[in-house]
Design a protein that fits this description.
The structure is a homodimer. By secondary structure, the first copy, chain A, is mainly α. Chain A has a single domain, classed as Orthogonal Bundle (Farnesyl Diphosphate Synthase), CATH 1.10.600.10. Chain A is built from 13 helices and 2 strands, in the order ααααββααααααααα. In chain A, strands 1-2 form a two-stranded antiparallel sheet. Chain A is globular and about 50 Å long. Chains A and B meet through helix 2, helix 6, helix 7 and helix 8 of A and helix 2, helix 6, helix 7 and helix 8 of B. Chains A, B: This is Farnesyl-diphosphate synthase. Chains A, B: Its cofactor is Mg(2+). Chains A, B: Pfam families: polyprenyl_synt.
């Protein structure tokens, strides 16, 4: 690892790789029906940190794996993430008109097209994952394992299950185990799946697998705790709202349950679990290590 | 094939096999989140002709393939079909309160849960298809081919694409090519994929593959033409509506474009194409042959 290595450059390079691969893999905006493919592309290319693809690539690279071999799965997980955002934003769900400052999918394309664009993106992920010609270097058994892993993480006992419990909990007082259930499922499952997919494609041995799983679990939860903290900090500085207004809105968060300082302690603990897990990789895990810092330290 | 062979018994047996396999493969209604799994099961077990699983099993059996080996894919295609019905019925789409005489998913579980139950069923299909332990006899390469086929048929250039064009066409005058686009995509793609999956799992050679594809294309379209005719015939006898009322409602149908008699001629032509394609299989194709009759002749 060169001494002039910089996280920002590392992230930019991987985001760039992911986005140009997404552009190649997704049907063109002129593919029939054009409106549908336009709607799919609208949300996939609406920005975002691409944290799942980046984590998958970084996990694979930590093991000395080939970046090109992991790109189809990295793009598939981003398609799954994009579909989940489109559906979460729908009037029947969170009813959000804006995401990252832009109108949400259903505001631009209508509710029916947004539902279908989400459905199509989820399906497209599996078209890509099962398309042997885009990753001939990865054998069928391994492709199957990655398909299984991503499907389980995205399904009723993973991400979708987390979203259901999140909605059920709205406006109710919930305890810490329920909050952790929501987050380990709604966001944690897919982040862990990103790391695990990178590990599978990078041919992790048993010790490496265990270490990366520990990293992925801790980093996934830390990501959510930090997001909860950031929401409040941003609220306070930008909107002048008090800490705890999220709780009044009926939304359970870590700061609401643990207090702002308690949530920061939890985020730091999780970050340190993630960092310790990387010890066996030495300097090769520098990207994953810096990403753990990047995820958590922005909330200090 | 025994002389006392009866289509009704054949269908009942395969439907029974499919439904008990679906019950085994789907997470139990007490799996957390219970509401979600209850919603998924509600629609999967709401009846239906199970035409896609039956066609897949029949195609595999025509080739002498093992019925047990095809069950996971047969259940997966039914999960995909169920998800598509849940989403089609949503207020933002067809806004249907009843399906097969029972309240639709969103009427029972609410709109958000219905969207998520659909999402979860689509995902569950890929969990099942990539689950090596449920069909160890089918190798990873073949499982992958079936995953690819079903995903493509269900995605933006298949079923979802057909639904988008169907919605875009509502209330507009459309021509026969557009109507055929809608149906070959919205229903035909998944029916053809059922036949093709059976052919792959049953180890079709090139001639058998071509014959089954021809059968699947014709039968898939015939199914829709017959459905359109039945809608009108049922309307006339049960509701006293005139032929053409579908057209007034802004829904394009074969009888609306070809006239009732013209649609019947088209259904018969398609049935005969399907039957001729089966010639190379001799008596082994009796189930597929009788199913083609069953699909079309009910509309006479």
């Amino acid at each position: 690892m060169k001494t002039d290595w910089q996280l920002e450059t590392y992230l930019q390079d991987r985001i760039q790789l992911t986005e140009s691969a997404l552009d190649r893999y997704l049907p063109g905006a002129d593919t029939l029906p054009a409106k549908l493919h336009e709607a799919m592309r609208y949300s996939v290319f609406a920005g975002g940190k691409r944290i799942r693809p980046v984590l998958m690539i970084a996990a694979c690279e930590t093991l000395g794996g080939n970046t090109q071999h992991v790109l189809p799965a990295a793009c598939a997980i981003e398609m799954i993430h994009s579909y989940s955002l489109i559906h979460d934003d729908l009037p029947a769900m969170d009813d959000d008109d804006y995401r990252r400052g832009e109108p949400t999918n259903h505001k631009v394309f209508g509710e029916a097209n947004a539902i279908l664009a989400g459905d199509a993106l989820l399906t497209e992920a599996f078209i890509l994952l099962s398309n042997k010609s885009v990753w001939p270097e990865v054998d069928a058994e391994k492709r199957n394992t990655v398909i299984s892993l991503l499907a389980r993480s995205a399904g009723s006992r993973g991400m979708v299950g987390g979203q259901v419990v999140d909605m059920e909990s709205e406006g109710k007082e919930i305890d810490l185990p329920t909050l952790e259930y929501i987050h380990t499922h709604k966001t944690g499952a897919l982040i862990l799946a990103a790391i695990k997919s990178g590990a599978i494609i990078g041919d992790a041995d048993e010790d490496q697998w265990r270490a990366l799983c520990r990293y992925g679990e801790a980093a996934g939860l830390a990501f959510q705790v930090a997001d909860d903290i950031l929401d409040i900090v941003a609220d306070q500085s930008e909107l002048g709202k008090d800490v705890g207004s999220d709780q009044e809105r009926g939304k359970a968060t870590y700061p609401a349950l643990l207090g702002l300082e308690g949530a920061r302690v939890r985020a730091r603990e999780l970050r340190d679990v993630a960092l310790t897990a990387l010890d066996i990789f030495g300097d090769k895990a520098r990207p994953l290590r810096e990403i753990a810092h990047y995820i958590v330290d922005r909330s200090f």
